[in-house]
Structure formats: structure tokens, C-alpha cells
Amino acid sequence: MSARLDFLTLQLFVAIVEDQSISKAAERKNIAASAVSRRIADIEELFQVDLLRRHSKGIEPTPAGHALLEHAHIILGNLAHLETELSGYRQGKRGHVRICANKSAILESLAPDLSAFLDKQPQVRIDLSEDISPAIVQAVLENRADIGIFGGNIPAFDLDIIPYKLDTLVVIMPRDHVLASREGLSFLDLVDHDFVSLEKGSSIETLCVRAAADIGRHLKLRVRVSSFDALFRLVEARLGLGLVPFEIARHQRMEENVVIVPLQESWAARPLVMGVRSYRTLRPVTRLLVEHLRMRPEAGPAEDEPASVSRMPSP
């Protein structure tokens, strides 16, 4: 049965009924009329039914032909829908992307960036999870995430790295802190004071530990917390000072007794980056999202692999 009742035969049958002519249907499909007649005859012989009735004005379907016509419309409609859907996957307009991002990225800019992308690509589904930067790198390497977004100071061996955003770290502290009246602070000014920090391994904590080591000192970590909200509350409670991205600090509800002071260090301007296993082999939907998110240079045409993609080889 399947040898003759195929998609082409169904298309031909629909065309015959629409044109009320085998020859016109054959011409439309660019097939010999005899071949079209043979296909219809094979189906009639197989099922022992008449599908077409010939009369002076042309051809019309029999009751069995009407049944075949109805199912042919359904099957061909489903096929067209399938072709459209598969084409959507090829073009990146459909699909599923797994993102793992750090707190800074999620709170600063990722939510509106993803919202803008999904407004344009409503058939795409995104799974977003949060973790600290080293764990994000590992998740991408182990194929538990398609895109990782993390602090650019974190080693990401064997990943392709694409710039995402820049953020600026500032110092928050109680208004009555001895350093609160300063217009700007170096890390040397801070290192002898108690710190409230995000969890161990976070990109901001890693920056602070490294900065302290560079000047031969140790970071005085008094409390570690798992969220920026908790960090702000503990700074308000005078348990220490904290380093946080400016965009998060300025949108955070803080008591009047907490102040924001600029951090005057070159590393205070911190890149957030995206890491993928291989930019060149990204699935279309993932590449479309990466291109939507990546920080573009001032000028220059788009390329198959942007100049901003870099790779850190294994040590």
C-alpha cells in the first residue's frame, strides 16, 4: 500500500479534484498524464473502490474519493506544518537554549535582554539557571548549559569567549564608616576593613582575593552570603563593606545610612562574558541568541565568527 499511497499521489489526487482534470493536474505537477492515471488506478485496485467519476464537465470525486480528499488535506497540511516547523529550527526561530549565568548578569541586564529576544522569537524556549562563575564554566564544558555568562576574570579553558556586558564595581558601606566621606577609594584603602562577600568562588570574591594578594595582604572576610539582597542587608547592619556592580547598587532599595563610593581600580570595570563550547558549531537557535546578546564593537560588519570571539586553550 505504501508503495503507491505516498505524498506525491495525495498531492496529485487533490490537484485532480481541484482542476477536475487529470491532464491539468499532470501539467501542474509536471508529470505525464499516463503516470498520474496509473497512480490513481493503482489505489482504486488496491482498495477495490472507485475514487473518481467522469462526466461531461470533467471529473468529480466519488464518496470514497471525498474521504480520500479529506484525509489528503489533513496529511498534506500536517506535512506543510512540519516543514515550516523544521525550517524554523534551521533558522533559529524555534528551539530550546540552556543558559547558566551569574547573579550580576541576571540582576543587571539579562532579564530585559532575554525578554527582547523572546519578543522577536516567541517559539524559542529558554531555561535559565544561576550559579557562581567557575561552576558556570564547568556546566558549559560538561554540556549541561549551551551558554554560560560569567565574570571575565574567571579562567575558561577550552571555551570560546564572546563579550557580553561591562559593569563597574563600587563600594557600599554604612554612612558612618570611616571611609564613607571619600570621593573614591583604592583597594589598598579597603583591605584592612571587614568585608561582606558573595559565596566562595564568585567572580567578585575572586577579584578581591587576587587584589589583596597582589599587595601582599589577606582579605578580611567577615561574612559570606548567597545573594546581593543579603549582602546589602548585612552592610546596612554594619557587618562590613561590600563590592557590588553599580547597576545593581543603584537599583537596590537601601537604607539612608548606606552610601556608594566609586572604586578607583582598573579592574573595577569588569567584563561579563559568554562562554560556549564552539561558536562555529552552535545550533542556529543558540547562535541567534548569542548574536542578540553579544556586545558589539563600535563599527564593523558582522562576520561568520565575530572578531570578538576568543578561545583560551587548556593550560
Give structural attributes.
315 residues; alpha/beta; 8-stranded mixed beta sheet; single chain; 42% helix; 3 domains; Arc Repressor Mutant, subunit A; 22% strand; 12 strands
Query: What's the N-to-C terminus distance?
Result: 61 Å
Count of separate DSSP helical elements? 11
Strand content: 15-25%
How confident is the prediction overall: mean pLDDT?
86
Helical amount among residues, as a percent range? 40-55%
The counted number of beta strands is 12
The outline comes out as rod-shaped
The assigned structural class equals alpha/beta
The second-level CATH architecture of the largest domain is 3-Layer(aba) Sandwich
Order of helices and strands: HHHEEHEHEHEEHEHEHEHEEHE
The CATH fourth-level homologous superfamily of the largest domain? Periplasmic binding protein-like II
What is the total domain count? 3
Which CATH top level class of the largest domain fits? Alpha Beta
Sketch the major β-sheet.
8 strands, mixed
* Rg for CA atoms: 32 Å
Q: Segments where pLDDT lies below 50 for 5+ residues?
A: 298-303
The fold-level CATH name of the largest domain is D-Maltodextrin-Binding Protein, domain 2
